[in-house]
Here is the input.
Amino acid sequence: MFPEFVVYLPVRNGGHHVDAAIHSVLAQSHTAWRLVVLENASTDGTSERLARYHDPRITVIPANEPLPIHANWHRAHDLMANEPADRLVTILGHDDLFHPNFLADIARLVTEHPDASLYQTLFDLIDENDGRTRPCRPVPEQEGWTSLLGQLCWSLRDSFGTGYVFRAGDWRRVGGIPDLPMLLYADWLVFTRLTRLAYKACTLTSRFSYRRHGSSTSGTPSREKHAAHLRAMQEFIRIMRDELASFADTDAGRSAIAALLARELSVLTVPVIRATFGPGERAGLTDLLALYDEVADGVPAATLVGQPYKPARLFVTLRRFNATQQFLRHHWWGQRRRR
Here is the structure.
């Protein structure tokens, strides 16, 4: 069997990175693929770049007007409605890269684990100039959904929304990518739901690169990103406690939620960040602090945030200092650019 893949590539103002992403698909040793580019009203010449590709396997679908990131990703969900249920699908960030054997290794993984509901390879984190900054954190060869969710909450696993492969029918069953602000925690939720259908299988080789830089969702801090982060975390934890209560209500689940809250609240409660929140956001922050007290059962936040090889309180202090410094630098630079 020689499976066909559909690769969805959402892009807005992708610049030269979108060329590198497309070339990484063209370079695949497994050649049975289609690439669907979801062009989101770019203003930087991305449309002109895309017009240079004449491979019949590449389809560009433009948006009539600029869409929020989650709306552009939802176009992939709508298109998947027309795919056979067993069609293998993946989403590639416009600045991320497949290694040449990515699809070939996934095809082998599907053969070895036909009952799995989610597939991935190990991957590298790269910088703006394609330099490898570090490998991803360890991923087991097989994993169930409670392990995946717990590892994500404890920050023992890297997950950035792309590089996973699934069947179109399974994606439809779980409802696709949820509408969380800026897609924060949305990938955790959708891939947990997919894994819950059966299990996740992973290669033990690195076949993908995720680019982390200032313009990514995980990059430059701002008032808007911090506010979205707060709202997304509230909704994510609410869904965990309602839909995934068989995990969230266990000791392991409560400790995972406590670890997530301790880590993220150590940044969101930094005075210069907290001061930018409106009344609703401050009320949400108060609710999350109260939830931490409930699920942590007296364990100090610094204990859950600190890493084994670093003194916990020092780690938290440095984390808060760095968050303050980055926010003030971004805010000051933004003020200068608007003058």
Remarks:
- The mean pLDDT is 89.
- Strands lie at 5-11, 33-39, 58-62, 88-91, 97-98, 118-126, 132-135, 142-143, 164-167, 200-211.
- The chain is about 50% helix and 15% strand.
- The radius of gyration is 20 Å.
